[in-house]
Design a protein that fits this description.
7-stranded mixed sheet, mainly beta, globular, 0% helix
Length: 114
């Protein structure tokens, strides 16, 4: 499975961004798909995920601001990020679990700075 992220960039605090993730396989078939992020000097953390068994989950720091969604017709996963804060800065990775194998995209940089 190949995952390709897009949509990152530089924004000011309070602004919005939408990330997209395209996959080589059908997103509907994945057991779990979602977004992680990694800030400089920090561990990679869960941002949001869609799971067949659990449904939608969000990291505590993004609840109420970020929304994960899926467009099956376009085979794309989205992350709508609103009210961005400087602490949201990092590399955002698309992640998929399929047939017991973890798959990661190459990441897209999000920088929130005034």
């Amino acid at each position: 499975v190949q995952l390709v992220e897009s949509g990152g960039g530089l924004v000011q605090p309070g602004e919005s961004l939408r990330l997209s993730c395209g996959a080589s396989g059908s997103i509907k078939s994945f057991n779990l798909i979602g977004w992680y992020r990694q800030a400089p000097g920090k561990q990679r953390e869960l941002v949001a995920s869609l799971s067949r068994s659990v449904g939608i989950s969000y990291g505590d720091s993004v609840k109420g601001r970020f929304t994960i969604s899926r467009d099956d017709a376009k085979n794309l996963l989205y992350l709508q990020m609103n009210s961005l804060k400087p602490e949201d800065t990092g590399v955002y990775y698309c992640y998929a679990l399929f047939l017991g194998v973890e798959n990661w995209g190459q990441g897209t940089q999000v920088t929130v700075s005034s």
